[in-house]
Design a protein that fits this description.
291 residues, 6-stranded antiparallel sheet, DNA-binding
DNA sequence: TGGATTTGACCTGC
DNA sequence: GCAGGTCAAATCCA
């Protein structure tokens, strides 16, 4: 049991990168989310301008506001891209397959999949797309520096879902920036696992640099930055999920930090732990006061 | 101990 | 024959 949650590539973290294989209804949902994210981003910009105008010359307050709003803005950008929005870094690969690692040597052999249409995506968080994945193979691809990992839907067996995806680290990922991965989706999901609520986990915290909580004696202690980011993440989770807020602490995702490939810690069954940090303005001020 | 991951072998298409 | 995709035994881990 624990193993299952441990090994299934976390879906919760789900990026839109993945919704290429999501059912149409989910696609509509994602589009709506992307739209709202864009709107939120836009409003954040306006708020930022307004706040900075009001706080001009107020030293610390101005700097804090600028920082926080900048982070919010950045978070919106990251979320939008993760959700498959227009902003980078998540970019749907061109159909011509010009992506570096993407196509080395494949091409003709592609037809093995019975002509199944494949969606290619480049994303910094390949393991979080709203579905649960199980790794079934890995292969070195000629002409590339990184192996390609093969994943099947976690419900392949029990529900006969044929969805597959391949994940390969992009060769040209710049040293300084986040690693980018080419993700190729195979069959459509028939398990209908991904529900809109799964979007909560769409935030790939490790990808956006969210520090993990430090647990001490059972008490979660957060640093200032962590607390700030938790608030930001929580607010974004609110945006994504509506009324319910979830903690970013359950950082899922399996960015192969342990060599265990991308298989993440916990998948859809992820403990999307409800948190009291449901963010409203007062909460935020409480937090900043505490800081 | 059960389930997931790893990895070499096998299969298939070009 | 080569290379990508998949299988399955071995291994790992909670």
């Amino acid at each position: 049991m624990q193993t299952q949650s441990r090994s299934i590539v976390n879906a919760n973290g789900g990026a839109a990168t993945g919704f290429g294989s999501a059912p149409a209804v989910d696609e509509q949902y994602y589009e709506a989310v992307v739209r709202e994210l864009a709107r939120g981003h836009e409003l954040t910009g306006e708020l930022q301008a307004e706040l900075l105008r009001v706080l001009r010359g107020q030293g610390q307050a101005e700097a804090t506001a600028a920082f926080i709003l900048g982070e919010v803005s950045r978070a919106f950008t990251v979320c939008t891209s993760i959700m498959g929005g227009s902003s980078t870094p998540a970019v749907t690969a061109p159909a011509d397959g010009t992506l570096a690692a993407a196509t080395a040597g494949e091409g003709a052999r592609r037809a093995k999949e019975d002509g199944v249409p494949r969606k290619r995506t480049v994303t910094p968080s390949p393991y979080s797309d709203g579905y649960q994945w199980r790794k079934y193979g890995q292969k070195r691809i000629i002409g590339t520096n990184f192996p390609r990992c093969y994943y099947r839907c976690g419900y392949h067996r029990e529900r006969g879902c044929r969805a597959t995806k391949q994940v390969q680290e992009e060769q040209h990922s710049n040293a300084g920036g986040p690693r980018m991965y080419l993700v190729i989706y195979g069959h459509e999901h028939t398990c209908h696992r991904a529900s809109p609520t799964a979007a909560v986990g769409l935030l790939d915290f490790s990808a956006v640099g969210l520090p993990r909580q430090q647990e001490q004696g059972g008490v979660v202690q957060l640093s200032k930055e962590e607390l700030e980011q938790q608030v930001l993440v929580s607010s974004l989770a609110c945006v994504l999920q509506g009324s319910q807020c979830y903690s970013g602490g359950g950082s899922q995702e399996g960015s192969s930090s342990q060599g265990r490939t991308g298989a993440g810690e916990d998948g859809g069954s992820a403990p999307a732990v409800p948190v009291e940090t449901s963010l409203d303005v007062m909460d935020y001020y409480d937090v900043t006061d505490t800081l």
